[in-house]
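pasting for the record
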Amino acid sequence: MKTELDTLATALYVKSDDLLKASPHLAPWRPAVGITPRLTDAELVTLAMMQAMLGFTSEARWLRHARSHLRHLFPCLPKQPGYNKRLRKGAGLLRRVTQLLATETSVWSDDVWIVDSTPVECGRSRETVKRSDLAGWAEYGYCASHSRFFWGLRLHLVCTLQGLPVAFALTGATADERETMLDLLAAEPGLLAAHPAQTLIGDKNYFGRGFEDELAEQDIRLLRPARKGEPQRSGAPLFKPLRQVIESVNETFKGQLDLEQHRGRTPAGVVARIMQRILALTAAIWHNDHTGQPVLRSLAAYDH
């Protein structure tokens, strides 16, 4: 099987279509009486993935490009307002397809996870902050990695050492990373059932005896660097090379999938656009895994 965008799009379409045929309740709700969309939900999932993979942050420009170059894959394309509405309503479907693809990779069963959070900037001007529909969820925060303040959200990501997203959440910029991690595990009870005796690697922000005790109760061993004043912790020599993995995954989201150029202006819009990018990365890893590629997280074959 070839590793090119058309092949990935075809494989994703077939997988999404099979999922919707087996579980039609996963499709976005629409009234029983009305005009049936000419673009199917499986095609919508595929179109959303390709937009993120090719780096089109403007939906209008993306649809113009699709009409000129992708008619062989999508004979019927909606206009920009219709695409935007369907994408926002289909965020749940994007999430479900992402989870399905992740579970069908050989690295899903890995017993080591890495956790971190990265800023998702949503505005820069004071006027944007005052008028944005994101106010109350988005907030001012500080990114220590880049020594800058920002207004927006944080993407909390748990992934394998190969970069496969396992669990994720969007929170306000000042949300506690430890509480978010525990909430993620509580929201996905089946995740730990499928991954007993897991090792979790985090940075210095994932500290606290109570936090570690709660993880231990769920059969998770936490590895992190020692904070100032603490004795040396076990596994310290491994932290530096393994911590680079999550930083590299974050850079894939930001440098190749344009995470911070999402252009979302409402909560539903931001969620849909973040899901597009997580789906794109997961789909690439899934396809690379099934085609025997040496580097699972490589997007080079698909981003042009």
